[in-house]
Amino acid sequence: MTPVAPTLDLERRLLDTAPLVIGLDEVGRGALAGPVTVGAAAIDHAVAATAVPEGLRDSKLVTARRRPDVAARTAEWVCGSALGWATPGEVDEHGILGALGLAAVRALGALRAGGLDVPSGVVLLDGNHDYLSPVASTMMGRLDLRTVVGGDRDRASISAASIAAKVARDALMVDLHDAHASYSWDRNKGYGSAAHRAAIRERGLTDHHRRSWAIA
C-alpha cells in the first residue's frame, strides 16, 4: 500500500489565527552513537496556499535513495528550515529528553536568526511528549506548542522537518564512518545493529558514543 501523503489541513486551520506554523521532528533518539538532530520547517500563508511537494512523507517511509531529492525540494517549498543538534556528551549530561530539548531550541533559534518571528507562531512537535517547553522556557520564552501524535506521517510541516533531519544526520554518520569503519555507521547510522554492537565489544567506545547508555 502506498503511504498517504501528509496534508496541510491542520496548518491551514492554525494559520487563521497565527502568521506561522513550525513543524519539529527528531532523528537519532535511539541511536548508540552520534548526535540527536531536530529539524524545523516553517509554513506561512503563502506556502499553505500551494501543494505539498510530490513524494514528501515521514522520512521513515521514503527510501534512502530518494530522501535527498525530496528533502531538497521540500527545503525550497517551506518559508524557512533549520536543524538543531545535541552531542553525545549532551545526551550523557542531560539525558535524551534534555538533549532533544536543546536541539529543538537550537533549531528554532536558527529560524529566528534567519528572520522568522518564531514566538508569534504555533509549534507542532511530533509525538505525545513535550521535550521542548522545559528547555525553551529558560532559553527562548513561552511558545504556543502542540504535540501531534503521528505528525511526521500526517502533517506536512512535521514531515518536512523529519526528512530534513534524517538526511542531514545520516550524511553526518556516513562522514564519521570513514574514521571509524569498524562500527559500520555508513549502514547503521549509529543505531544498535549486530555489527555495531560487536565492534563495541571488540574495540570499545569512541568519542561519538553515548557513554551513559548500556550499549555493549
Automatic annotation (TrEMBL):
SUPFAM superfamilies: Ribonuclease H-like (SSF53098). It is found in: Cytoplasm. One of its GO terms (cellular component) is ribonuclease H2 complex. Manganese or magnesium. Binds 1 divalent metal ion per monomer in the absence of substrate. May bind a second metal ion after substrate binding. CDD domains: RNase_HII_bacteria_HII_like. Its cofactor is Mn(2+); Mg(2+). NCBIfam families: PRK00015.1-3. Endonuclease that specifically degrades the RNA of RNA-DNA hybrids. Belongs to the RNase HII family. PANTHER family: RIBONUCLEASE H2 SUBUNIT A (PTHR10954), RIBONUCLEASE HII (PTHR10954:SF18). This is Ribonuclease. It comes from Microbacterium faecale.
